[in-house]
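[Discussion] Sanity-checking designs against the backbone

I'm trying to build intuition for which residues belong where. Below is a C-alpha cell string of 168 positions. I'd appreciate it if someone posts a full sequence so I can compare it with mine line by line.
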C-alpha cells in the first residue's frame, strides 16, 4: 500500500489579504491531511494584515483563522521554506508578474477571482462579495481535494490544477 504524500500548495495574490488568505484557510480546513496550504503576496503593503471581512466570512463558515497573516512570497524562496508541490495564483496581477524561483520547481496554475476588497456598496454588500469569493474558491478546492493524487507526478498535478481553472 503506498502512502499518500502531503501536498504543499502556495496561493499567491498581490497583497495577500483576501483571496489568497481565503484559499489558504479553506484548503487547510478541507484538505483532510493530504494538503498543507500557505499563502503569500507578490507585494504586500507595509504592515499588511488579512482583510477583516475575509476573516469574518471564514469564521462564519466554521473555518479556523488562527495564525493567518499577510506575508511576502520571498519567505517561500528561502532555504528553510517548505518544499512546494503546487503554486496557484488567485489574482490576475500576480499571475502576470515574474515569480521568483521556487526550489523544486513546483507545478503552477492560475485560478482567477475578482477582488472582493474592490466591492462597492454597504458593509453588507461588501461582505457578500467576500462570501461569494469564498464560495467560488471552495467549489474549486472541493474538486482538487477529491482528485486521486496518490503517486501523482508534478506534470499530472499541474495539468489537473490547470483544468480546474475552467471549473466553478
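Best answer:
Here's mine. Compare freely.
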Amino acid at each position: 500500500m503506498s502512502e499518500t504524500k502531503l501536498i504543499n500548495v502556495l496561493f499567491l495574490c498581490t497583497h495577500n489579504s483576501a483571496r489568497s488568505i481565503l484559499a489558504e484557510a479553506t484548503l487547510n480546513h478541507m484538505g483532510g491531511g493530504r494538503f498543507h496550504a500557505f499563502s503569500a503576496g507578490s507585494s504586500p503593503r507595509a504592515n499588511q494584515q488579512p482583510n477583516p471581512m475575509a476573516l469574518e466570512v471564514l469564521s462564519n463558515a466554521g473555518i479556523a483563522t488562527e495564525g493567518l497573516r499577510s506575508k511576502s512570497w520571498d519567505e517561500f524562496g528561502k532555504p528553510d521554506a517548505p518544499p512546494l508541490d503546487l503554486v496557484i495564483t488567485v489574482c490576475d496581477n500576480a499571475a502576470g508578474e515574474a515569480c521568483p524561483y521556487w526550489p523544486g520547481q513546483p507545478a503552477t496554475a492560475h485560478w482567477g477571482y475578482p477582488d472582493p476588497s474592490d466591492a462597492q456598496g454597504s458593509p453588507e454588500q461588501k461582505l457578500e462579495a467576500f462570501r461569494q469569493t469564498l464560495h467560488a474558491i471552495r467549489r474549486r478546492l472541493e474538486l482538487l481535494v477529491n482528485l486521486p493524487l496518490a503517486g501523482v507526478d508534478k506534470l499530472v498535478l499541474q495539468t489537473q490544477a490547470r483544468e480546474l481553472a475552467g471549473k466553478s
